């Protein structure tokens, strides 16, 4: 009887040690992932030629930011202010924000919208700063965000089109929350006359529906998997420069995080894109 009890105790002790090892490994991985999430964003660069570029027009430097997901602990206003300073150093002609400025997720401390947008008011670009909405922005309240963005000097685009230097920019609303009007926005872009068309979108849903006269889409949302190294299906999400049949899409990995404040094999980034002939 004593031998049976001894064996049972050894068995339980083995499982306790195994559970402790698993917990320690998760804590170590979580620490590494959190440190990765706090890393300074990589400034990635691309140079693209667009059909229909005016012969007398100089190249246009576009800075793409995406998925700020402002929330504590990993994206407080102080860190966002540092990223804004980093963005201004790039001396872009125009800055584009591809949605999810705010964050509505688990395991976070909420930051109020006004406090989030305050650092963004310091973004500087010769031809202005423009933004579209993401799914988190709609979950928080698109109207509130729109009010503070406009107060900060940022132009929000909701299925709208504007001419910026030599390009015609269309900004579509979020498709994940069923607010987007891709065809309507494309028609508004065409109505502005001749010029290369560029679409700014939070998600990548319309990549398979690119019109012949729409050579470039700029997007975010995928976070480039965020933890793609450990979940292989996430490695298949659109990321970086994607090309297909004369069309290109640039997808940023974003600046903040979603669901969990960790990153693996998908560092935060911003894209400095030079457009020209």
Structural write-up:
Strand 7, helix 6 and strand 8 (197-200) form a beta-alpha-beta unit. The strands form 2 sheets. Strands 1-12-2-3-4-5 form a 6-stranded mixed sheet, with helices on one face. It has 277 residues and is of the alpha/beta class. 30% of the residues lie in helices and 22% in strands.
Helix content: 25-40%
> Mean pLDDT, nearest integer?
90
- What's the SSE pattern? HEEHEHEHHEEEHEEEEE
Count of individual beta strands: 12
What is the first-to-last residue Cα distance? 86 Å
Q: Helices and strands: which structural class? A: alpha/beta
Give the neighbour order of strands across the main sheet.
1-12-2-3-4-5
Q: What is the CA-atom radius of gyration, in angstroms? A: 22 Å
Report the major sheet: 6 strands, mixed
Overall 3D form: elongated
Beta fraction: 15-25%
Stretches where pLDDT is under 50 for at least 5 consecutive residues are none
Helical stretch count?
6
Short description:
The protein is α/β, with parallel strands linked by helices and 277 residues long. It has helices spanning 2-37, 77-89, 113-120, 135-140, 142-151, 182-190, and strands spanning 42-49, 60-65, 94-98, 129-132, 155-156, 160-164, 167-171, 197-200, 216-219, 240-244, 247-251, 269-276.
């Amino acid at each position: 009887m004593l031998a049976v009890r001894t064996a049972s105790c050894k068995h339980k002790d083995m499982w306790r040690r195994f559970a402790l090892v698993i917990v320690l490994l998760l804590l170590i991985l979580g620490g590494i992932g959190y440190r990765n999430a706090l890393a300074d964003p990589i400034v990635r660069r691309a140079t693209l030629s667009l059909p229909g570029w005016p012969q007398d027009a100089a190249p246009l430097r576009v800075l793409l930011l995406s998925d700020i997901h402002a929330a504590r602990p990993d994206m407080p206003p102080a860190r966002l202010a540092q990223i804004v300073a980093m963005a201004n150093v790039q001396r872009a002609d125009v800055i584009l924000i591809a949605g999810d400025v705010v964050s509505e997720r688990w395991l976070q401390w909420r930051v109020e919208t006004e406090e989030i947008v305050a650092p963004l008011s310091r973004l500087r670009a010769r031809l202005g700063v423009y933004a579209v909405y993401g799914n988190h922005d709609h979950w928080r309240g698109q109207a509130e965000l729109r009010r503070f963005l406009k107060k900060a000097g940022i132009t929000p685009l909701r299925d709208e089109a504007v001419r910026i230097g030599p390009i015609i920019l269309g900004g579509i609303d979020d498709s994940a929350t069923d607010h987007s009007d891709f065809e309507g926005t494309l028609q508004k872009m065409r109505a502005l006359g001749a010029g290369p068309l560029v679409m700014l979108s939070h998600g990548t849903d319309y990549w398979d529906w690119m019109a012949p006269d729409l050579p470039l889409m700029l997007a975010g949302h995928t976070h480039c998997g965020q933890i793609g190294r450990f979940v292989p299906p996430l490695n298949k999400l659109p990321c970086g420069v994607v090309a297909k049949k004369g069309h290109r899409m640039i997808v940023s990995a974003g600046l903040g995080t979603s669901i969990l404040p960790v990153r693996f094999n998908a560092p935060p980034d911003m894209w400095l894109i030079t457009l020209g002939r």
